[in-house]
Specification:
There is one protein chain. Helices cover 32% and strands 32% of the residues. By secondary structure, it is α+β, with helices and mostly antiparallel strands. It has one domain: 3-Layer(aba) Sandwich (Aminopeptidase), CATH 3.40.630. It has an eight-stranded mixed beta sheet with strand order 1-2-3-4-5-6-8-7, with helices on both faces. A hairpin with a 4-residue loop joins β1 (6-7) and β2. α1 (21-28) packs across α3 (48-61). The longest helix has 17 residues, at 104-120. The mean pLDDT is 95.
């Protein structure tokens, strides 16, 4: 059983299929994607996209991760709701370099907040980004998340110690903003 398909004004957030693997591999292979994500390697290994997609259904069934392709008529990136403690999840995302600056991540992340609070029943959603990736922080601010703190020199990425900046939002804050909506799915 895959996660539901969600819709925004311009995007469809849907489960990945193995047919998406070539496009996914091409986008995720850009050095810029690996540079600003915690676990994506560079170069991205052949067959890794298929292996990653192949794990999605079991992860959803076990309520570990809810993976979605960000699709504007083609796959442009991914957004994941990663379940943590009871009632809490983390959002992770990236979009391919050719699609940067189009507002896709903000649009997708706002819908994932709605999905997490209204459909999954979460109480808290948070996200983190490397401090050098200010665009990711702007996404979190746009969707109503609040700055929660910085873990200084928290990770080692390609020989460099990096700070991770965290933002979060509570269910009550999301409801108070009045941004929830029902979507077709």
């Amino acid at each position: 059983m895959p996660p539901p398909t969600l819709h925004t004004t311009r995007l469809t957030l849907r489960p990945f299929t193995l047919a998406d693997a070539p496009a996914l591999h091409e986008l995720v292979s850009a050095r810029e994607i690996a540079l600003n994500t915690l676990t994506i390697p560079h170069p991205y290994p052949p067959g890794a996209a298929e292996q990653w997609i192949g794990k999605h259904e079991a992860e959803y069934r076990e309520n570990v991760n809810h993976h979605f392709a960000i699709d504007d008529g083609q796959v442009v990136g991914t957004i994941t709701l990663m379940m943590k403690d009871e009632g809490m999840a983390e959002i992770g995302y990236w979009v391919g370099v050719p699609f940067w600056g189009k507002g896709y991540v903000s649009e997708a992340a706002a819908e994932i907040l709605r999905y997490g609070f209204e459909e999954v029943g979460l109480q808290r959603i948070f996200a983190g980004y490397f401090s050098r990736n200010a665009a990711s922080g702007r996404v979190m601010e746009k969707i109503g998340m609040q700055y929660e703190g910085t873990l200084r020199h928290h990770v080692l990425k390609w020989g460099e110690r990096l700070d991770i900046v965290f933002y979060g939002i509570l269910r009550d804050e999301f409801i108070a903003r009045g941004t929830g909506r029902k979507t077709a799915g």
